[in-house]
Give the backbone structure.
Amino acid sequence: MLIQTFEQVADGERFTVAVNHLKSKGSSCASVGDPDLGDGQGNCSVTRTNAAAALADYLAADPTGSGDPDFLIVGDLNSYRREVPITTLVGHGYVDLIEQFVGDDAYSFLFDGQLGYLDHALAIGALAGQVTGVAEWAINADEVPLFDYNDTIADPGESSFERESAARPLASTDPRRSSDHNPLLVGLDLDATPNTLAVDDAVIVTRRGGGGGLAMAAHVIGESFTTCPTVALAVEGVDVVRATLNRVRRSSVCARLTNVGLVTFDLAVGAFGAAVRLPNTFVLADTTVTFELTVDGDRFTADVTGTRRGAIWIAD
């Protein structure tokens, strides 16, 4: 895995790319209890799924310190689009850009006459809206292996049809058959407006030993939403609530009464509200409190300074 953050010279807008090559379907994982289960996913499906989940969690921690929520996962993930490693990433808020832009005719690899795409571009929700287009560059998969890029010797036990021609050079200015997979092209139009959470009012009532309650009103800047979203709120790094909201009658307000309290989101103005119980793991250690709100995969954060009066903290 290789992770790199890039910065746009004109305005400083950033995005982070994670390049991956997950465990092969053909290699054995029997020694770690992950054999071929006969479900069409080949060997090591659990290993690939665990790697996908770990990658999503690692990127969520902003490993490069970019300070920007725009993440793009690319590479040969050795999984087709309906396999569990890919659906795991989608479940973490990533959008399958090949499915979205290319559709059912997409393929980047040909194996025994069967087409599909093992090579992916998945963007977190915050970046997906800034993607202008995606294409597969068909220069490799359809080219016969006879003109392959890396094999001119018939190895012992290799079938005659697998031996590559020694009549052609290994290196050429022609890009074709530079790999056995087709490369992907992703177009971006980066939005220079950073995602920001503006906290209008917030009150925290703490309890001795941890926990308490929170009432807050805020609004998001940098993204707009047209359908009721899934929201997740963390305070001081502690997960407080996650809920998929429902529209209130025919208004622009979405809401959900959860087991920890009420959360709302007004689509018209991007306003978020919450009156919720804080988990026992929450401890208020400073007068500055970090709020992190995720709305359909878009992350908005704010560090808010307040005044503490006994067990009550009030945002300034």
Q: What stands out?
A: The mean pLDDT is 88. The helical segments are 45-60, 84-91, 97-101, 125-128. The chain has two domains: 2-141+181-188, 196-315.
